[in-house]
Amino acid sequence: MGSLNFDHPPEFFPNESPLDPNEFRRQGHIIVDFIADYYENIEKYPVLSQVEPGYLGKRLPKNAPDYPEPIETILQDVQDHIVPGLTHWQSPNFFAYFPANGSIAGFIGEMLATGFNVVGFNWVASPAASELESIVMDWLGQLLCLPNSFLFSGGGGGVIQGTTCDAILCTLVAARDQMLRRIGRENIGKLVVYCSDQTHSAFQKASQIAGIHPRNFRAIKASISTSFALSPESLRSTICSDLQDGLIPLYLCATVGTTSTAVVDPLEPLCNVTKDYGIWVHIDAAYAGSACICPEFRHFLDGVEGASSFSFNAHKWLFTMLDCCCLWVKDPNALIKSLSTNPEFLRNNATDSKQVVDYKDWQIALSRRFRAMKLWLVLRSYGVEKLRNLLRSHVQMAERFEELLATDKRFEIVVPRIFSLVCFRVSPSAISTELLKHENNINEINKKLLESINASGSMHITHTVVDGMFMLRFAVGATLTEEKHIIMASKVVKEHADAILTF
Amino acid sequence: MGSLNFDHPPEFFPNESPLDPNEFRRQGHIIVDFIADYYENIEKYPVLSQVEPGYLGKRLPKNAPDYPEPIETILQDVQDHIVPGLTHWQSPNFFAYFPANGSIAGFIGEMLATGFNVVGFNWVASPAASELESIVMDWLGQLLCLPNSFLFSGGGGGVIQGTTCDAILCTLVAARDQMLRRIGRENIGKLVVYCSDQTHSAFQKASQIAGIHPRNFRAIKASISTSFALSPESLRSTICSDLQDGLIPLYLCATVGTTSTAVVDPLEPLCNVTKDYGIWVHIDAAYAGSACICPEFRHFLDGVEGASSFSFNAHKWLFTMLDCCCLWVKDPNALIKSLSTNPEFLRNNATDSKQVVDYKDWQIALSRRFRAMKLWLVLRSYGVEKLRNLLRSHVQMAERFEELLATDKRFEIVVPRIFSLVCFRVSPSAISTELLKHENNINEINKKLLESINASGSMHITHTVVDGMFMLRFAVGATLTEEKHIIMASKVVKEHADAILTF
């Protein structure tokens, strides 16, 4: 490291090109083994990193080294200093947030994309990158039984974005500009956007970035009476009230599988409301969209035909490494009108011919990675049937966990489980009067349970609060998770509850 | 492929986990060799892909396969169908756009980040990802001799964004909101942003997304009298005129190394103008920023101390695979105020302690890849001195190319070369009267030269038009480029000129 520089004068290091094929081969093989070893040993690490804030600054030098360091030294540092600071998202005992499930095919796809390292801002900059993206997005759209109007074959089209926030921001800006072209730019302050209070915070952020007045951001309260789904009646009355105030309804973000509890908004009734007002509807199926490639889950997308755009994150639950958010729109021109720029240095005959897709005009950034590669690899390496079965196995494991907890009277399943997320808590009825004297309330006890489980390192779960209720979220989907991990997880939860509930 | 599914019934395929370590090892090694072979053979491919629009759709099935396909089959398809559709950015004969130069360290860093596949939205989700990012951004900031006020140690801080457009959008939104908090949201239509007509189109796009009125986007003409740099006098007079019209100056995007011709805007005089009006100055050094780690180029950043934010793309010219845009800001709180969201499901004790950096609040997206890993690997694997020498060698090769062309009277170097970009054209004096009868003008002849060179497949360059003048851009920076490629490139240019200029 830095202090060792004088021990490693430059002449000890080969002067080869930083892309020398032989050295690439040598180091590449070393790293493949390093990562394979990591997966083999992953259960040995505490799932949630146990380091303290600032730990790494104490271990690394204050400056970049002057001279080259061998890969072996660097990898030793990765093992000694980086791995302890990781929260192990690929661990079979990772049940936090939503999964970011990796796969060999996803990894290989990233390697190929990184190895080619093409910058596919427009078609001519690498035709294969653009064309493969259009093809796999049509493949995936078909798997989801999206209406043809979302596919290239039907006049719509799909694009791979980084994240849902990007997807929402791009479609929101398209909707905004479409509206402002009609009513005049000066009316930007009148535009109103809608969602429920269960909608992902990405929507609030996108609205903020797009210049929607914060006063016009409507997070309609979703109550327990609708299982925390957005009520079409509430939406309609909110819209009507805004219209009466002289405001202009613009955009609705509906969710299939909310982040807190994986609830599904009723798409068809919601779209029936919005179509009366010309509102752009985006459907965010970031997590649960993957499950909808299984025929038995597809009905959760019923009503999607009424939306203007739809997105889900293949990097969450479809074995495609971060990042890979799949977005389809019915009207690519709306996106292009807002997001295209045509600097002279990018002009080319293919673009002028209008026969090609230039994805730079479908996204925020100009430069773009060849993300279609990993999606293609995943679809081909596993095939549709195996992907469906893998997703089903995750749902079944979540069901198993739910059963294991439900048979223990101390716990309650707070929200009906649909996909692979179980929301549970220690039930108020399980708390002794004695214990309640020392604990503020049921939420505090559940928070204590959460922290106790995570501090153990044996598994990692996270929490949410809905309608004032603190609950624990158990999300199944890590690729290495097997039934034995689920059984162990239920034991861990119960053991920690034992300790906390016994006074 | 799709049609072969019946020949590959599922029972022929192993039922292992998609992240089985042994299979990971097997496939990982295959791919390392595949990519190493690609680099070894890269000069055999035409640099600019020669495929026709729609080529890939004719070669791939219409649907995703139902059953798994072996990696060997898929790789054969990559070789047969994808590689011909690539424009080979890693080729030593790639001189187009700006480079996206890869390296073994950059690749290895991506592999590690992809293998761990952590989602580092906040500190607790993977402490090492956040902390390493802060550390390497301070390292890099020191290398660039950025004022301490841009570093964490000085109250500022750095963050890795995807691209310059992200960096500009984030800082523009921060500046916008800071101003609107003062003057009221309803005044968004009065905000004015400034740049030159040589500024990258990313700024126009970011302004559009952030809701800046298109009428208030000032692309001040940069003339040949200032070598196409933005004139402080023009900036001041434009600002004064806007103020007289009751508008509110907000943001200036100055450039170190413009995309068309690598011109450097005069930072210090520009900042002297803006400071009188409280304007946020962002410095976009996307390409040329890398060179500024060399002491002899650092003076191009003089004046950066007057700016509010600074960014450059390590994925262009610092051997760090796409994408890796390094952004520093003096006032992280301005970013955080605009971009933070605090959903309950992400609340945690580390965040509450305010001892950690949660990078989700510094960027558009919530989820983020572990990009710091590759930057760290590049800095350590090569060390500062070697990196400087590599950059110098690119500049020297550009100089060599410039000399080789300058000694041929048919060519003229249009803009003084500073970094590794040579802007040249066939000189009007080289055109015979006979030829001019058949060609519209000098620009058409240069366009023909460009197309002829690119169609040959032997090298790839692109063009720009500045002040009505069509010129060819020759950007050196691909990692595998050696002097012999430069000499060959100059020969190719001359040979194609021979053919075009001979009538």
Automatic annotation (TrEMBL), chains A, B:
Q: Which molecular function term from Gene Ontology is one that the record holds? A: pyridoxal phosphate binding
Q: Positions modified as N6-(pyridoxal phosphate)lysine? A: 316
> Keyword annotations for this protein?
Decarboxylase, Lyase, Pyridoxal phosphate
- Region called Disordered, residue ranges: 1-20
What are its cofactors? pyridoxal 5'-phosphate
Database matches in Gene3D superfamilies: Aspartate Aminotransferase, domain 1, dopa decarboxylase, N-terminal domain, Type I PLP-dependent aspartate aminotransferase-like (Major domain)
* UniProt entry tagged with the keyword Lyase: yes
Any one GO BP annotation for this protein:
amino acid metabolic process
Q: Would you tell me the Gene Ontology cellular component terms?
A: cytoplasm
Entry-linked Pfam families: Pyridoxal_deC (PF00282)
Q: What family does this chain come from, according to its entry?
A: Belongs to the group II decarboxylase family.
Protein name (Swiss-Prot/TrEMBL): Tyrosine decarboxylase 1-like
